[in-house]
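Q: How would the structure tokens look for this protein?
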Amino acid sequence: MITEIPGAADFARASVNLLHLAWETAVGSLRTFESEHAIYAKGDEPELWSPEEVIQAARFFWDFSQPELTNALTLIQQAIEMALKGRIAFVSPFLLIAKDARDYPSGSDKADVPFSAFRTIDAADLLRVHNSVFSVRLRDDFHNFWDAIRRQRNAIIHSIASEARIEAKDILGHILVVNEFLHGEQFWPQRRLAYSGTEEYWAAYPQMANYTYGFVRDEMAIAVHNLAPSIIKKYFDFDKRARGYICPNCYEYADRKLQREVIPHLAQLRPRGAESKSLYCFVCKKTTAVLRQRCQAHGCPSNVLNDSPNLEMSNRRGMCLVCQEDNAIR
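A: Here is the predicted structure in token form.
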């Protein structure tokens, strides 16, 4: 009989893990570029670098990042294949076996043979099989999306002379598309939060939960900064054209001692308006109460102050959710 038969959950888990790895690759490149490029572009001694040299340095950085980003694109392609296999396996894993019985591995009718010894259907046939057996067919726009990724990867892998470039921000966008189409049961920021506690570094060298939380929050800020407003609105429900604020819940939960940089403004008023007193954050998916009072800090345009009942934040009632100034509440 056939043994070690993979289930739908096995394929889905493998697919999501590949997406995480691709995400970390792209975010890592963007984080390094933004931190180092800022030093040269806006450093203490900007006269050491001309604008032309700064532009050239950026071009070199992304030129040498192409192998990593190509790997990330390959991971996304593999993640799609794994996810489709998982959906097919949900109906029956035996639908993944490509050959007729006469072409099964030798001796499979006389002894146990693992599923991995059988040839499975080609990647090019996965979508056709999926849409033939799975209850929810994938739309043509997903087929076009996957086909574009395959063609881009093939152009880079199979043509040394190819001038095609992969943008790190495109990798992030691709991952959000795949997650929605094939793993839409969990919002990507929450998936990152859940995954962060399972990574090898945090498992081997345990940190406080709020330390890893801060890293995920910063990842989302990088994504918001680099992706188009339409993408951020669609997948994060965040309006880049509207003012963002510090989320009181994230402020309390993240480790501010170890992560002292500017706290990302990833919460927005819901509903928008001068009278709104509710702030929604797409990272923690929580809504918190705010006070509408002008911040007393010189030059700060904010009139949105903390009114959180949380233990720590209650001691900072009146903190400006833009500049973090402590305001006396009238």
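The mean pLDDT is 86.

The two ends are 76 Å apart (CA to CA).

Upvote if useful.
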